[in-house]
Amino acid sequence: MTIETGNAGSQPQQRSRPRRDLDTIGGFLDSCKDETPILLYFDTAEGIQRVPTLLGDPPTVGQLRLNNYLRPLLIRERERYQIAGTSDAGWVIRVNSRFKPEEYLRESKALTS
Predict the structure, then answer these.
(1) pLDDT by residue (tens digit) across 10-23?
(2) Strand runs (DSSP E) across 1-113, as ranges?
(3) What's the alpha-carbon Rg for the chain, to the nearest Å?
(4) Exposure on the CB side of residue 51, measured as CA atoms within 13 A
(5) Which of 33, 49, 51, 66 has its CA 20 to 30 A from that of 100?
(6) How many Å separate Cα 79 from the centre of its chain?
(7) Residue 105 and residue 69: Cα distance in Å, rounded?
(8) Quick one: which of 108, 79, 82 has its CA closest to 4?
């Protein structure tokens, strides 16, 4: 079950009927604008979560949307965040898996060929 939170300070809400299209990274990215920033957190060997630098700083939906390595990954949690000093907002997405840079790069190269 995916946990969703809205604005900072709001209580997490669990959806009793998950919508399949928003439970994967690909389905969720398809529902966002290309310019939306995404902070995509993966598990590490140390047991903490980090955003891989390989993804960008921060990556946008348009940069990640078509990567077939990312698309099927299940979202554990997502939270909207406000970008400091602007009216722009983005998403923090957490997955319960380790980042596989070789698979990400292989799928990224497939997009450019």
Answers:
(1) 555 454 444 557 89
(2) 3-5, 13-14, 38-43, 49-50, 75-82, 89-98
(3) 14
(4) 14
(5) 33
(6) 10
(7) 9
(8) 79
